[in-house]
């Protein structure tokens, strides 16, 4: 499995929840995952029940087997100051520019600069190694912008590399694109089994492929259980009220006549929902990508529910794929775990 996991999706599909569950699923058996937020909504902190994330990497959860999930809310202004220091040694000058408002101008007005900084910081975390030459993080998971602008967001460095033909800006942009267009990266799209999210997912996949960006999985989120078997669905969709009334009477249900109409209406709505979901599954199957499904959790997603969703990912092979692709140091040696016991909980 790719080391850089980018999670996008139409608004309302639960992409932040999916990104968090994926990070937990990948952080198993001593592996370390960095969960990155780029939209400034502090959605990760809310999910894990922690305080607002600062511009620093900190542990927020522990997975079974001692794996760790770290999180980072990337701030574009701070990322620009890092960039100025890294390439131009302008630490103090950068802080002076911030006081003058130049940093805010660059990150909010200059076209594309914000996205360059956000993707650049995430890719730096993907490439970062320790003194022994081992990757600091086995996986980096990004809670990315929605499907409608994910391709432009990821591809902005291509445009920058074309504008700045030489120098550190050009080199940095090229380095970022080498990560984003390599097998190290996979862009996953989250959808619901509804017509608009599925269509936006199909359009997003087409745009990503046209830009030569690597598409990973389709994650079908908030999947509802089917409550009726096939015979019951056919009966419900046909509105066969007399048969239902007779069945209730035979079962000894008194006042069955008054129950038939609301029961039939609810069953009919469920049958229509099932048919809609089947049609959308057929559309998704035609896109030719692997899929994963996560169940509907209900109101509010607790930390325990996140772990349950992560377990669903593992049942569908996501964690197993990670075990074959991550956590290996030079020469294929397994990197030792970062410590910490098994179990669930928010880290300090």
From TrEMBL:
Residues annotated as signal peptide: none
Bias-annotated ranges (Gly residues): 328-348
Ranges where the record places region Disordered: 316-348
Coiled-coil residue windows: none
Pfam families in the cross-refs: ArsA_ATPase (PF02374)
Alphabetical list of InterPro entries matching this protein: ArsA/GET3_ATPase-like, ATPase_ArsA/GET3, P-loop_NTPase
Domain of life the protein comes from: Bacteria
Domain ArsA/GET3 Anion-transporting ATPase-like: 3-180
Protein name stated in the entry: ArsA-related P-loop ATPase
Organism: Streptomyces salyersiae
